[in-house]
Specification:
Elements (H helix, E strand, L loop, with lengths): L24 H10 L4 E5 L2 E4 H17 L7 E5 L4 H12 L3 E5 L5 H11 L1 E7 L3 H11 L4 E5 L17 E3 H6 L16 E6 L9 E5 H15 L6 E3 L7 H4 L1 H7 L3 E3 L6 H11 L3 E4 L1 H9 L10 E5 L6 H10 L1 E9 L4 E5 L11 H8 L4 E2 L5 E5 L15 E6 L6 E2 L3 H7 E2 L2 E10 L5 E6 L4 E3 L2 E3 L1 H9 L4 E11 L3 E10 L7 H9 L10 E4 L12 H10 L2
Length: about 550
């Protein structure tokens, strides 16, 4: 300890009065006390005030504890964006357990791996997914008590009781709990809060562990970044199982906003809910934006809806169409390991004077560090030295923050590899502009090396998306005897568009360097993850198999 600071330590230790472990659970307690009658959750014809929402979460915590789940054990939930999953984001941790929200598009074998790896004690499952859940439990060999949620808003949904397994009805389970349950905040804010599994595209999925501290800070950062307050109405178009809904599961509650659940994303339903409930905020991958602008022409919304999108940069044409409908788009960047958003393309007033193309190119950048992220750099992957801010020199995006995961569950080697030299290595390749804004050029595994030249698949995709007849596009490397690799474009045409490969290649050659244009064009539907991200690993396999 520095000698001069000794006097500021003696008799000034941490006490219960001046050092309280941070947890996002406190957001719900406060909102229920300050806004008890305010609508917290809407799901179809159902709704709950903050006082009611708080009581339901406390009931859930009490019931979980009563079922024998011990602090630090895992409760898994397999459900779409319905109230049960939102309640689990509070009730599970209030019981001292760790929430594992499971991707609803996973197969039984992968879910079985997760149940075993997480050592799941209790499994809450939406009725629609009971068959795959039972198969997963059978494969896992675990003796897991299953709580079935029967959604009254799901037409044709039927109960699956009577199969002779350990299945309990969710509402009945909830009624066993105490609405005044005296839950305890974590003893240490570094305690595990939730467990999220990566996509596992290069092997078995890795379990990313979040702390109470990280979730608390990231949630408040989202409140400030996205401008959420008690008047906000948030529509759940982003899966809650994806990075715990980018922590908006807690952020909206922190501001005492209203959660509008949406079981299945359908374009007409989204517009209906926006108008019916006065939705002000929503999030989603670029595919959601594409869906909103690709249907019948809609009248401009009567109020502005703030939309945060992540993943690949939205094409300029999509941004323009969204603006015309009344949506204001903010581009975010992040990973499961960083609680979702870790960079944001902060709007600058001088961009107002730019033309649409120039403005779109600025808005498509991943931007600067999220307010709760201590630092973001673009650096050499070997030396960790920062690259010049010249907009051309590529390096790897690295992050340092209180909102970086604790690590990978039961995988110390992978944790050590990702958290090197005081930085989290993202694996994303980017440049940094003179103004400090980061712009991704590719994933390290997605860069195409053709004849010794690095080709960005994202640059080609931007050129493709500017074509009026292209709905979706993805570019990957295809092995080539002469060049090593060449760009291979997979394209989904818009309805009614008659496209040819030659036309697409010529379109690209007029917009980017000719050697970067695709050498192969395949027209087909693109495979996607449950969060709308295009599965390039599957496309790379297809490109390798092309004759």
């Amino acid at each position: 300890m520095v000698l001069g600071f000794v006097m500021f330590e003696e008799g000034l230790e941490r006490r219960a009065a001046n050092h309280v472990p941070l947890t996002p659970l406190s957001f719900l307690r406060r909102s229920a006390a300050v806004f008890p009658e305010k609508t917290a959750v809407i799901h179809g014809t159902q709704s709950w005030s903050y006082a009611q929402f708080y009581k339901r979460c406390r009931r859930l915590a009490s019931a979980i504890a009563g079922a024998g789940v011990q602090p630090g054990e895992t409760v898994s939930v397999l459900a779409p964006n319905v109230p049960v999953l939102l309640e689990a984001h509070y009730g599970v941790a209030m019981a001292g357990a760790v929430l594992n929200a499971v991707n609803t598009r996973l197969d039984a074998k992968t879910i079985a791996f997760i149940l075993n790896h997480a050592e799941t004690r209790l499994f809450i499952v939406d009725a629609e997914y009971m068959d795959v859940a039972r198969d997963a439990i059978a494969i896992s060999g675990r003796n897991v008590t299953t709580i079935e949620y029967h959604d009254p808003e799901q037409a044709g949904s039927t109960s699956s009781f009577g199969h002779g397994d350990h299945t309990v009805d969710y509402e009945s389970f909830l009624q066993k709990g105490d609405p005044e349950y005296k839950w305890r905040r974590p003893a240490d804010e570094w305690d595990a809060l939730s467990l999220n599994y990566t996509s596992g595209t290069t092997g078995e999925p890795k379990g990313v562990v979040y702390s109470h501290r990280g979730a608390y800070l990231n949630s408040l950062g989202n409140v400030m970044t996205f401008g959420i307050d008690a008047r906000s109405v948030y529509l759940w178009t982003l899966p809650m199982f994806h990075c715990n809904g980018w922590t908006y599961t807690w952020a909206v509650t922190a501001a005492a906003g209203t959660h509008v659940c949406l079981r299945q994303i359908e374009r007409d339903r989204v517009f209906t809910l926006i108008l019916e409930h006065g939705v002000t905020h929503m999030c989603g991958a670029p595919i959601i934006l594409n869906m909103l602008v690709s249907g019948p022409t809609e009248a401009r919304l009567p109020h502005t809806v703030e939309v945060a999108t992540g993943g690949a940069a939205p094409p300029t044409s999509i941004l323009s169409a969204m603006e015309a409908l009344g949506f204001s788009v903010t581009h975010l960047y992040g990973l499961t390991e960083s609680y979702g958003p870790s960079a944001v393309c902060v709007w600058q007033e001088e961009w107002e004077a730019l033309n649409l193309q120039q403005r779109g190119s600025r808005m498509a950048r991943q931007g600067v560090n999220h307010i709760m992220v201590e630092d973001i750099i673009v650096a050499d992957s070997q030396t960790f030295e920062e690259t010049p801010r010249d907009g051309t020199t590529m390096g790897e995006i690295m992050l340092r923050s209180n909102t970086i995961m604790k690590g990978y569950l039961k995988n110390g080697a992978a944790t050590d590899e990702s958290l090197q030299n005081g930085w989290f290595r993202t694996g994303d390749l980017a440049v940094r502009h003179a103004d400090g804004y980061v712009e991704i050029k590719d994933r390290s595994k997605d860069i195409i090396i053709s004849g010794g030249e690095n080709i960005s698949s994202l640059e080609i995709e931007e050129a493709l998306y500017s074509h009026p007849g292209i709905l979706e596009a993805a570019v990957v490397a295809r092995p080539d005897d002469k060049w090593g690799e060449t760009p291979c474009a997979f394209i989904t045409p818009r309805e009614g568009a008659a496209l040819t490969a030659d036309e697409i290649v010529e379109w690209c050659k007029k917009r980017i360097a000719r050697f970067k244009a695709p050498k192969t064009v395949v027209f087909d539907e693109l495979p996607k993850t449950s969060t709308g991200k295009i599965q390039k690993h599957l496309l790379r396999e297809r490109a390798r198999s092309l004759s």
